[in-house]
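so my prof wants the structure for this chain in the tokens format not the other one, which i didnt know existed until like an hour ago. anyway here's the sequence
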Amino acid sequence: MHAPTTSPAASAALERTFERAMGAAGRALAEMSGHSIEVVATEVARTTARRVVDAAGGAGTVVVGIYLGITGSVDGHALLILSPDGARQLAGLLLDGFAEPHLVEVGDDGLPALDAMELSALCEVGNVTVGAFLNEVGRHLEEPVVVTVPVAVSDMAGAILDGVLADLTTDNDDVLAARTSFINGGDEIEGAVLVLPRQESLAALTVALGAA
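here's what i got, hopefully its the right format
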């Protein structure tokens, strides 16, 4: 499998864009939740989706994925990926004071099952984080970028990824990725933000990142 390469200038632009976007996402989540939440982007790169899945523990690892479709100047998909424990902890921060604690049910896979309110809270986290990134690059695009309503699912990382790649109908699985940490006091929840543009949109996105 190929290893995508970018120029040092493009890599630096991508890193700055993710840093600004996640900073904005943290401020928005803090305002929504009433908690001090900082979102930090590290290990920002143009890479392959498979490498990201491997870094998450492999295709068979169960994760929570928050999916958004992207249309407009950039066409493709975006994902926020979290561990099940991290997803529950992050949802708890947003729901604190709005929902009563409940008995955690265990699913058929032996893992805690997220309820409807937790899934809804995670959808909002995905909407905020991905939206913040697209807002940063969108200022340098001719047409607006629009995202679909987010959907949160718990499944194996490989299954979630394959479902997205199947729609791209290309052998190219380049993604713009950032390991993302949600920090609340001494607690740190790790995840990853992935942007998977269609091949024709990758050039437009690269140009926009350069302008950013």
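also thought this was worth mentioning. The domain at 8-211 is CATH 3.40.1550.10 (Chemotaxis protein chec).
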